Each structure stands twice: as structure tokens, then as C-alpha cells.
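Recall the central idea of this unit: under ordinary conditions, the amino acid sequence of a chain determines the structure it adopts. In this exercise we apply that idea directly, starting from the sequence alone.
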Amino acid sequence: MTDKFIKLNGRVFVTFGIQAVTGLHIGGSDTKTEIGGVDKTVIRDPLTNYPYIPGSSLKGKIRSLLEKYKGLKQNQRIGQGFIHTCDNGNEYARCDVCQVFGVPGEKDFSTPTRLVVRDVQLSSKSAKALNDSGRTDLPYTEVKTEVSIDRITSAANPRQMERVPAGTIFGGQEHPAEMVYSIYHGDGCDAGKDIERLSLLVEGMQLLEDDYLGGLGSRGSGKVRLERIEIKVRADTLAEPKSLGNYPTLKELKGALQEIQAKIRTELGLA
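Accordingly, the structure predicted from this sequence is:
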């Protein structure tokens, strides 16, 4: 067995807020649904009862959108659907999506996954506003009734869906949403290419804004806006991350991306 050499050069921190432009539904457990209750509930923090956005949902959605945008083959079954996973080392070496988002652990050709996506908590400001409004059907959420029609019998089948109301903010200033992007160098890794691949992440963020997050998206739910984006870099684990800029919207972040990448190279001694 040949020993591999891989060095962590540094980490880039992307923090931001997520605004629900339309009602947001990220499903929780429906095992306790009672007769006359809500058919589709949202996931909640068991300690606070606040709805939240799981990091797995956010990361998975961005990855899925990028796979389809890049035209990558959907070759691995997950549940009732398919995702992309590289079959061999040569394919993996050319695949930016798998390098950034990772591949299953049993693949012996993989290098470390670059991207970590944290769970995103409901902002305290939105939590207070929803609690004080007295207008939500359930704590912090609304109930949306939908009716499907049987095309053979014309019978109506009403269903109730729980959603976080439009205008709600996740990842407030006290606990912003966070994605951590690691930059590696060594066998199978190139720090310069990792910095270039940051553009893939920003591309995925734009695809998310253009699409939807969670369920019921084709029926109006899940449109989100990313805001108050800050980019930080840390080259030394003992030092505080250094801010490289604040960007109110994704459009402004995209306009500054090349400058940000140049600053990262300088901070990591790769310029």
C-alpha cells in the first residue's frame, strides 16, 4: 500500500442568511399524524421546536442542481431517484462536483470532501415575529391546503401541508448559515484548482436561487434568496478567520469572485 500525502492549506468560510421568498416546506416525520391533522409536517429542532434547514438538504439540493446543469450521468440509486457518482479515479480527477461535494466512503480513489454545510437555524428575530403575530396556524408555521382531483372519478382529495411563511429568515446575524470549504494540496489534490472550484459553489448558490429548496417547489413553495454573504479565510488554525468582504446579495458576490479568489491565494501563500 502506497502512503498518500495530503496537506490542508486552509479553509474558506461562507456565511449568509436565507430568506424564504415563498412558503418553505422541508419535511419532517409524519409518523404522529392524526386524523384531521397535517399530512406533511416540517422538520423542527427538538429542543426549541423551531423549524430549521438541515445542512444535508441544502448541500444535497445544490449538488443535484449542479449535476444536472453540468449534464453528469445519474448512475447511483438513492431511494426512488438517482444521483451522480464517479466510477473510477480518472473520472473523479476531472469531476469538480465529486471533488467538492464528495463520493461514497467505499470509493478507494477519493480525496477529502471539500465542502461542509451546517444546519441553518431560524433567526431569533423571525422566531419572535412569528410568535408575536398570532397569525400562524401552528407554532412558527402556516398550513396550506391543497386539493388533488382524481381524473377518473373527479373525487377531491384535500391535503394539508405545513410551511414556514414567506419572509422568514434562517441564519440570522447571531447564527448565520455556514458553508466551510477546505483547500488541500498533495496526492490527488491541487490547492490552486480548489480555489478555482469556489466558482462551482457560487454557481450552485445561483442555481438554488433560480430553483427551490425543500418540497412542493413545482407548486410554488421553496423559493429562497441568499443575502448578507460574508467570505472569510483561515490559513492558520490558531488564528481568527480573516474577512475578505461582505456582499448584500449573490449578484454582488459573483461580481467580486475573481478578486476574492486572488485574495485567498495571497492569504494562503499561493499567489
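Residues 6-27+51-134+166-267 form one domain.
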